[in-house]
Amino acid sequence: MAKVAFLGLGVMGYPMAGHLLKKGHEVTVYNRTAAKAAKWVAEFGGSSKATPREAAAGQAFVVACVGNDEDLRAVTIGPRGAFESLEAGAIFIDHTTASAIVARELHAVAKAAGKGFVDAPVSGGQAGAESGALTIMCGGDADDYARAEPIVAAYAKASRLMGPAGSGQLTKMVNQICISGLVQALAEGLHFAKRAGLDPDAVIEVISKGAAQSWQMENRHKTMLAGEFDFGFAVNWMRKDLAICFDEARRNGASLPAAALVDQFYAEVQALGGGRWDTSSLIARLEAFSALQKP
Amino acid sequence: MAKVAFLGLGVMGYPMAGHLLKKGHEVTVYNRTAAKAAKWVAEFGGSSKATPREAAAGQAFVVACVGNDEDLRAVTIGPRGAFESLEAGAIFIDHTTASAIVARELHAVAKAAGKGFVDAPVSGGQAGAESGALTIMCGGDADDYARAEPIVAAYAKASRLMGPAGSGQLTKMVNQICISGLVQALAEGLHFAKRAGLDPDAVIEVISKGAAQSWQMENRHKTMLAGEFDFGFAVNWMRKDLAICFDEARRNGASLPAAALVDQFYAEVQALGGGRWDTSSLIARLEAFSALQKP
Known about the structure:
The structure is a homodimer.
Chain A: E1 3-7, H1 13-22, E2 26-30, H2 34-44, E3 47-48, H3 52-56, E4 61-64, H4 69-76, E5 91-94, H5 100-112, E6 116-119, E7 122-123, H6 125-131, E8 134-139, H7 142-152, E9 156-163, H8 167-195, H9 200-207, H10 215-226, H11 235-252, H12 257-271, H13 282-292
Parallel strand pairs in A: 1-2, 1-4, 2-3, 4-5, 5-6, 8-9
Antiparallel strand pairs in A: 7-8
């Protein structure tokens, strides 16, 4: 068992830190809003600190799950950040979905001071965080990953080292690129089925047996047809992730026309008030335009 | 066992007619190119006729699997077409992926003469036709479908009546709409993974466990990465099917922006010489542009 600090108790971090404690690790938490940290300690035990620097002092591992590049820099290299107290030999594990740039930058800063840094974005969403069944895509040095793996195992169903620093983030980007166009295609299919007067549930039962099948089709078609989006992975977060993809693609030369189109559709979902809706709400945009049509 | 005529011995119809004969039905075939019909008879047995009208005479069922609306009209209501000899009480089963319009039109013509018509497009491709594991989406009258079902069972793993005449075609359209955007998203993801210097096979192994998973991801990523497209469902056919979708969407008011974009990308694949490539060749277009980039 290890001494672990956990920075960021959002919808993902809160249950993830809980899994660490339940596995027997000695957990110290930090959260920007202190009341959340107090609630966590009341629920799980462990202790909380007022700054990342205090939380990271004396730990073997410091784990973060915050919002974006800026938040990540704040809790690491910012004033009273974890890197001010992170000990030589300790490993920083970052679960934030962030850019490969910031991952490489923090990896370099950490290494220069004899510390480890593993970028480790996750997939599996809030449900995966709560059940401890996340998939974790890692970048960094093999020896650091080997030490981090038993720690993240507390809330992972699978983890894998994908390559050098930043590779975890790049892998997560591939995941988001594949999802965005796929969900739009599914939304168009369901929208068409409704307009065509078909029973969309029956259609999905039939076509999900073949080449159109997807996790999204099987797990989201019912809520998409019902217009229920008050759960899951928010449109605002997806747009943040896609912005990272486009920024990286500007550097590596990849062309992402469907992802770019879908990002614009997500902007329209935001305009409809759906920034916090699940990413499957792309169908709400199609239906909204449909509702405006003259009979 | 029944007397069945089969019209159209293409890559799909050829093995499908073979399954009918192997199940014990008495099969008479017709093909526009007579040599193909002769080859079929030499391989399987049964008999062939020189026109759809001759093939359809005296049959309980007439099954068609031809190229498009025009071909379908030719073998049914055209000169020497099957409807000239189709007997009252017989059922015409159409496996062509065609418009809902032609399905409703032929259903009305058949019904007015006391005959049955079931639109029954398939999914599962050449492999499904050869192994007898197609999924069949049907439209028409319940009693006609009930009689047709045991016939198509010769090459189906599943069949279902989706609603009135044309509903089979509309369901197939939903299938193609879902596939087109999904494959483009997958192509962009794999293309990005390569440009980002990741091991794309490792990436797929990880992300196919989660929300990005699809049949296409699992069954096409290896050939997409290898640039192998000389198999499967051709781009030319997909464009024909998508044209039917857009035509129907003009009538029912559905909005299909991603499908429309991908259709234009397929036009570019055709321009690259890939009209007969598998639909997964969307990645070839991305890679082709990539190869033109200045270093």
